[in-house]
Each structure stands twice: as structure tokens, then as C-alpha cells.
Amino acid sequence: MAARQALRRVPESAARLTEDDRALLLHLLDLPTAGPLETGGGQPVRLWEAQRAYADAAAELGFEVVRHAPADRSCLVGDDVPRAVQESAEILPDFLDSQPSLVLRLGPRLPRRSTVMFNVHLDTVEGREPGRFDGARFHGRGAIDAKGPAVGLLAGIRAALAATPALGTEIGVLIQAVAGEEGGAMGSFGTRPLVDQGYVGRLNVFCEPTGLRVLTRSTAAMTAAIEVAGRDAIDDDPGKGHNATVLLGFLAQRLATAVPPHATDGQVCIAGIKTGPMHNKVYGSGRLLLNLSYGSQEAGRRLEGTLREAVRSGVAEFSERFRDTRDFEITAAEAALVTRLEWLKRGLPALTGGDRWVDDLLVRQAGLARWPDDVPAFTCDAIWMHGVPGTSTAVFGPGSLGHNNAHAAGEFADLAELELFARDIARLLHCFARNEIWNEAS
Fold first, then answer.
1. Rounded to two decimals, what is the model's pTM?
2. Structure confidence by residue, pLDDT tens digits, 330-350
3. CB atoms within 10 A of CB 75
4. What pLDDT, in 10s, does the model give residues 204-249?
């Protein structure tokens, strides 16, 4: 009850977005911040500019820049670095230089137990849409994922400062404004290096769309490629070569039924097939992509084994089914020789959740809603907090990936929901400060 009464001291009006906040968000929406993994390179990535604008706005609240730089190339080494990241960094000389990350700190450096860290990503998926505000709704790429939440975060911290003098003195606040969240980078050169360098707190909040519900889990994802490397044939004699289109199409259907039941704490996405564009040619080579998410590393290993066996049995079933079919006899006979499974991304950690301290602080004391246990989590950079000692982590933000058209045309964020998010951030910080000061006094 005392915590609830204390929360009433956070003025609701202080959590509203000001005209300057709205202007900042529109400016961020107008800046192209999709990285090379999304665009393929050769297009401007104005993350430096976006982060400077964000740092300038945060400076008005007392934040100082403690780091603004790209990651070191050492972050590109390791089996758990997505292959797309490694390959792009090899062929694009400014891959890392064009994608810096920003760390801001409010007040002096304080012990981890007295610090809250917020993580927001300012990179987006590809797709330019002019930013606009119609009086109630912001439109544009990144409106909900996650430039809108980034601006709402500043409004929430401003509201908390008005009611909680300990912020910036007895309680530290860090903000990571990162690159490398989108495009399959999985935070490998954005969030992960910052976590490794210790820019974390006792509480770490990743500002992603959760419908203003506290989520303490985050799935990781792995990407598999089923490659067929055979020989082509002409359409006048299609049986002379390997038909990668038919083989991969068969495997796609087979895997769509065989693998998803085993993804009990994640999802299986049968993604794209690519063989060739022509109508008068049989393509002997091609690729089928799958993305598989999982809620724990053990679940990931089991899912990896399931897929491997499903590919093996699927190829065997294809060979049996088509061995006496004239145009596919060669493909059936040699399917196992020309087909292989490769991993483009795997071995990433998952955030398993179950942190009672977070539930007590954010749900019971701050009055925030809790993500239902029976609703699957999703993948975000929070995975890199797995196993970090002395920390607790939550994913929390306005809107939802589906409803707000994240990653799609027509992405939007409602002003009212951004302001509710700001109010909840103020409550969160007020409760954290109250608990920490009480613990120190006792």
C-alpha cells in the first residue's frame, strides 16, 4: 500500500510528450536508419545523426554521453555471430563505422545495484515512409519499433525526475541507443558489446512493443539453409538434370508439418525458396530458408536435432516417391548427394525469465501489467542479458508488433499509448528508487 500511495506523487501530466518530444520523433522518423543488412549497402545510414539528436534531447534532462562509437571488429568473431553479419562486414568497409551505438548516463557512475538500464534501438527495417503526425498518431518507419518508444522513454524519465530527486544522485540511469537490432544482426555488434563492457544495471528494460505488459522472457532464433547443389537442365529435356525447385518445394511442405510441433516454446517460419526466375530452364541449385526460435538453449539444441532428422527423412521420402517418375529419376536417385543443411545463425542464448524480483517490483509495486505465461515471447536483444550476474531484465513497451504494423507499410504509434508508456516508465523508476533507498537505509 505504501508503494501505491507513493506512486500518486508522479504527476500524470508530466508524462505527456511535449512539442519538442513530438518534433524529435518526427525528425528521427525522417532519418533513414536501416542498416546494410536490410538495404544491402550502398544507401545512407544516418544513425550517427539520429543518435546525436537523441543525445541532445537527453542532455536537457542531465544525461551525458559516455560512449558513442561503433563496435570493435572483435565482435564479429565466433560461431554465435550470424553469418550474414560476418559476410557483410567482409565486403562492406564501413559496415561497423556506419552503425555506431550510443550510451548515455544520468549522474555519476554508481554501483550496478543502484542503476537502471534502458535499451532502445534506433535502426529500422528497410522501407522509407515520410514521418508525419495527424494530431493523435505518428506514422513512419520506426514509429513503434522503436523510435517512438525511445522518445517516450525520455518523457517518462523527465516525469520521474520531477517526482524522484534520487535519480541521478543516489540512483543511476543508463540508456543504450543501439544499432544492429534489425536485419538478423541479433544485437551482435550493438547490444552485446555494450553488455560485455558492463553498461548494465540491476534492472534492465528493453523497450520493445509488448502492449505495456512486462515480459521477462525472450526467445533466440537460429536460421537454417537447405542447399541443393545439382546441375541444370533445359526445359526440352528436364529429366537430364536435378530439379531443385521440386525437391525444395517437397521439403518445404514436409518440414512445415514435421518441425513446428517440436517448437514448444518458440516458432518455426518456413521462409523463402530461391532457385531461378526463368520459365524455360530446370534449376539444379537452390536454397530453402527456415527461421526457428526457442526459449532456452537446450530447447534450441533439441530443435536443431529435430530439423536435421526431418531433412534427412524428407530427402529419403522424396527419393522413394519420385524414383520411378521420368522427369525426376535423377533428382530422386541423387537427392541425398546434392542436398545439405547449413546453419546461418545458431547457438545464441535465450532469456528464460522467471525472475520474481522483477514481478514484485514492476507488477505488484509499480502496478504494471504482466505478460501472460501462455503467450509466446518474441526475439529481441534482451537475450544478451542471459546469465549476466547481479541483473534482472524485462522487455516492456507500447503497442504490438502485429497491430502497429511493425516491419511493414503503415507502421504507426498512437500518442496516447506513448504517453501511457512514459507514465509507466516514471512509475517504474520511482519504485526502483524507493526500494533501493529503503534497502540502503535498512
1. 0.92
2. 999 999 999 999 999 999 999
3. 19
4. 999 999 999 999 999 999 999 999 999 999 999 999 999 999 999 9
230: cell is 545439382
